[in-house]
Specification:
One of its GO terms (cellular component) is membrane. It comes from Anseranas semipalmata (Magpie goose). Belongs to the opioid growth factor receptor family. It is a single chain. About 60% of the residues lie in helices and about 5% in strands. It is mostly helical and about 170 residues long.
């Protein structure tokens, strides 16, 4: 199910699933109907995780009303982290890099600032962050993570001297 909603150009856990080609991705992007379905699928998965897409233009997110219950699910079952990584990669493939940035920042905020998703923290830092295609946006998110990581001295996702200078 998730493979069909969020296809990638790489093999996932199901080795029988055929990876997408660049030509298929370009065809998807040209189809208004396909892209509308893609956004609906994204919204469906976000709701499953207790998140709402508040702005389709920017990709801004917020907690859903049922966030506490859904976050328990995220904390309890780590297989969701693989699914989120897949969704993030697919967002990049389909031209929604700005959606990627908001989703990663959402998880960094919930794990590092709000501390509501402690069992997602490793995936957010080790995998989610590095799905971001834009080097500039990825740097900004690494800096954001460093600012909120506790204890800051244990942060290993970037050289501290460069992070100190980065704005």
């Amino acid at each position: 199910f998730l493979l069909r909603l969020f296809p990638l150009r790489e093999h996932g856990m199901n080795w029988r699933a055929k990876p997408l080609t660049l030509q298929e991705i370009e065809a998807f992007k040209k189809s208004k109907e396909v892209m509308e379905r893609f956004i609906r699928a994204y919204q469906l998965m976000l709701r499953f995780y207790g998140i709402i897409l508040t702005n389709q233009e920017t990709g801004e997110l917020k907690r859903a009303e049922n966030w506490a219950e859904r976050f328990q699910n995220l904390n309890r079952f780590s297989h969701n982290n693989l699914r989120i990584t897949r969704i993030l990669k697919c967002l990049g493939e389909m031209g929604y890099e700005h959606y990627q940035v908001h989703l990663v920042k959402f998880f960094l905020t919930e794990t590092l600032v709000e501390e509501t998703l402690p069992n997602v923290k490793r995936s957010a830092l080790d995998y989610f962050l590095f799905t971001i295609r834009s080097k500039q946006k990825r740097r900004e998110l690494v800096h954001y993570a460093w600012q909120h990581y506790k204890p800051r001295g244990n942060f290993v996702w970037g050289p501290h001297d460069k992070l100190l200078k980065y704005r």
